[in-house]
Amino acid sequence: MASSFPRHWTHPQAIPRGFLRIYILTMLSRGPATGYEIMQRIEEKTEGAWRPGPGTIYPLLKSLVREKLVTPSEKKSKTSRVTYTITPAARRELSEMRAGMATFGRKERVIMRLVSDLMPNEILVPILLNRAREGVEFMRTRISALPEPERTAALRELRSITENQLDWAVSSLKLSGPPKTRPKPVR
What we know:
The protein has a 3-stranded antiparallel beta sheet. It is mainly alpha-helical. Helix 2 (35-45) crosses helix 3 (54-66). The chain is built from 7 helices and 3 strands.
């Protein structure tokens, strides 16, 4: 079934207030970038669903410069691009912002429950299965990057969750009976 949403369907107001600010600071904490590169990276990360425009990015960067959270590079010529670098003050603020994001998981679960009420199971279940598949790949990357002993603890918890899900799936399949086989095509 083809989606009726255009490729760039995410409305900027759907992004939580202040999110873009913390995202830009996080991105710049990994290395300098131009405003254009920031827009490109966000578009890549959202698989084309959202690309904040210059009217959003550049005023926010100017604001971060005024607040002394980022510093722009000196333009060497009229055609050179300005790159932005994070300041030590921004690193402190970023640390505080990340601490405040600890409640994100709960907010995400609440929103997901509300969204799930909007969709019939035939549409929602494939979305959730895809989300689970992507989540596993995402977790592999993130868990692998954890230092010990956090890595081992996370792997043990993931194993427990996976085993519980597998037990549920196996018992549910047993209740469903044998799989229905399709007749083989005649050649």
